[in-house]
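Tokens in:
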């Protein structure tokens, strides 16, 4: 049995299910609508058009249908949609029809049912690849890194946060080649561990994948990385891998391109679809502020004190903001000893 839901500008046929799980006929999680909102905003905020887009794990097709309906004119040259489930492909086609998008003889669209690695390898390359798997993205990273074009964007989701955030440290070591730590900063360190893993896979092909927008939310983490080719760029990336907070190795460079973070927030606030989405606007506003601060990690502060401490830090001439990683966190450039004195009210 199917039911119809709305997401963004589109309507979607999805399986009726008592519980959101991998065993749904075809997977759809409304909570990931925010992840799709962010993909749309990010692509609309980049100065790029005529893109070849890959959606290798498409499920209901929701992400690509939203791209086709919500991305600015001239953004998409071709959108390739794939899933290895026949049920998914049937539903994707029905969802295209539901949204009045003609698939047959449409040069902009290609729908295939094959293994995602073959789908990527059989292509000439993409300007945007969106890896949105169940659990770890590992199984697709090699082919995605091979097929991401120069200046292309690789978007990667991981939902195996129990490994990345340290509940299962041995799993993290096996899967991400790093030691995690379960503490107040774990969502940031987990995301940085994931980014380093992606960068190491790409480095083999002399591709430097630089994070332009990254975040952690509820049960998942997501990073958008831009492929800047060249040996020197790769060497510079590897120099920024190291330990933090007794965890790692991890990526110690920037998690965001701050002008992009600013533009995404601005575009969301002025967009018909997104301006009333409080959760999205709040996340983008917080990230916009924290992207301006060059600091790895943050300090967890008593919630009542948070705003006054941010003001005090700024009055002393240091940068400070909330962090989206932790409701009690402050990201700041202030030295730890000075922050400790401030907290003691000295
Ligand atoms: C988490 S869902 C994708 C959700 C979708 N991107 C969205 O935004 O709703 C993962 C999808 O990957 C598909 N899948 C899993 N392994 C695959 C593989 N090796 N090749 C192709 N598709 C695969 C599953 O059938 C499932 O539809």
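Residues out:
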């Amino acid at each position: 049995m199917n039911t119809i839901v709305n997401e963004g500008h589109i309507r979607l046929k999805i399986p009726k299910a008592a519980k959101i799980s991998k065993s749904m006929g075809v997977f759809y999680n409304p909570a990931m609508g925010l992840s799709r909102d962010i993909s749309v905003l990010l692509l609309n905020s980049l100065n790029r058009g005529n893109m070849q887009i890959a959606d290798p794990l498409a499920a209901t097709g929701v992400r690509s249908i939203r791209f086709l309906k919500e991305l600015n004119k001239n953004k998409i040259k071709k959108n390739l949609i794939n899933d290895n489930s026949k049920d998914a492909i049937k539903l994707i086609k029905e969802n295209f029809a539901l949204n009045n998008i003609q698939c047959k003889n449409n040069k902009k669209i290609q729908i295939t049912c094959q293994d995602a690695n073959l789908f990527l390898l059989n292509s000439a390359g993409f300007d945007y690849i969106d890896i949105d798997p169940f659990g770890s993205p590992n199984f697709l990273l090699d082919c995605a890194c091979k097929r991401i074009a120069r200046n292309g964007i690789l978007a990667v989701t991981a939902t195996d946060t129990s490994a990345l955030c340290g509940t299962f440290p041995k799993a993290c070591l096996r899967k991400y080649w790093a030691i995690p730590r379960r503490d107040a900063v774990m969502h940031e360190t987990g995301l940085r561990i994931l980014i380093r893993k992606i960068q190491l896979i790409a480095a083999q092909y002399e591709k430097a994948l630089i994070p332009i927008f990254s975040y952690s939310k509820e049960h998942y983490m997501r990073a958008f990385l831009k492929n800047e080719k060249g040996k020197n760029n790769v060497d510079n990336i590897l120099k920024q891998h190291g330990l933090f907070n007794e965890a790692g190795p991890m990526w110690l460079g920037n998690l965001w391109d701050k002008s992009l973070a600013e533009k995404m927030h601005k575009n969301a606030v002025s967009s018909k679809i997104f301006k009333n989405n409080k959760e999205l606007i709040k996340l983008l506003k917080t990230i916009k502020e924290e992207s301006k601060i060059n600091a790895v990690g943050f300090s967890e502060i008593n919630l009542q004190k948070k705003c006054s401490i941010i003001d005090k830090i700024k009055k002393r001439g240091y940068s400070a903001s909330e962090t989206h990683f932790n409701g009690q966190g402050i990201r700041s450039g202030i030295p730890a000893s000075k922050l400790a004195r401030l907290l003691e009210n000295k």
